[in-house]
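Notebook, bench 3.
Goal today: get a predicted structure for indole-3-pyruvate monooxygenase from Prunus dulcis so we can plan the truncation constructs. The sequence was checked against the plasmid map this morning, with no discrepancies at the termini. Length recorded as 409 residues. Pasting the sequence as submitted so the record is complete.
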Amino acid sequence: MGSCKENQQENPQQSNCGSVQGPIIVGAGPSGLAAAACLSNHGVPSLILEKSDCIASLWQHKTYDRLKLHLPKQFCELPLMGFPEDFPRYPTKFQFISYMETYASHFSIKPKFNQAVQSAEFDSGFWRVKTQDFEYISKWLIVATGENAEPVIPEIGGMEKFQGPILHTSLYKSGSDFKNQRVLVVGCGNSGMEVSLDLCRHNANPHMVVRNTVHVLPREMFGFSTFGIAMALLKWLPLKLVDKVLLLLATIILGNTDQLGLRRPKTGPIELKNATGKTPVLDVGALSQIKSGKIKVVVEGVKEITRNGARFMNGQEKEFDSIILATGYKSNVPTWLKGCDFFTKDGMPKTPFPDCWRGSEGLYTVGFTRRGLLGTASDAVEIANDVAQLWKTNKDCRSSCNSHIILLK
């Protein structure tokens, strides 16, 4: 690939290529904002490219209205600025969005919106990042698109036959749209549980498919955050012993979930989360609705979708008015990051936590720890420290960057 100068010589009328002072950050969600703020704190400029029209587009456009943070706010803060003191222990979706907007404003973070990255590739000492209408060049690339960039849509036979709506939870807003309907919810993670609970509260009749094993834990134990208890115990006890303590307490508080069709995995909740990224369900009320029969648990997987409902693996067929896919999200990194073997085919860093934040050739990642916003904050701090050291000591790099810097407004 040629330089910007060479491209402009070939196409004199076209000036759609230029270098960026500081790192290019792909993604303006919590991860991208945290990285930019930490860099700014070190005096290092950066540029965020965001495919959507706003910051935190997943939170703003693809979450349901009743969503709250699953963990207490002290575990969800971005670096350098905490939540307002008057926010509740578990901030709502709208409060969290407000917090991120204030965060961006406080650190003067101004992403370039509607810049969908089509490709990013390392070439001759620089990262070349192409969007639909520009090519940005930098010594450093920070991948901040995260683990949940794109919805996972399963391929289930017969979906085109169904007469009612089929939608992913990324399009679900409120159970008020499904009042008095029989709704099939495919998936039993936090989203599946909360959507089913929301449907109940709007007089719908949800049937939740629980094909795989799942850990359900109370959000709080004896007035304390379950996550907080786990973090405290891990400072003193081995991980597997902490898992045993959590499961013992969960059984005392919730009862035996196996009897409800919610079979627990053999691997403990924290160990499973660290190994696979599968998050335990933190119950906020769905379990009581399952016990009362208002949420029906379907332990058979869906074999196919029919015109009026679904046929299950045991051959039984049931009618439904709507189908909601609570099937989660995935990374989209493999679709645009080229010539890089740092990521797996699933778009996750091959290097495990806590060293997954740094690749080679000036490549960094933030938000891929499988440890939520706490992991995001840790990544952002590490990246900023590393880049700042290079920024301040590598005078040759800075002078070469400054020789063809463009002003991006």
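Confidence is low (pLDDT under 50) at residues 5-14, 400-409. The longest strand covers residues 119-123.
Flagging this for group meeting.
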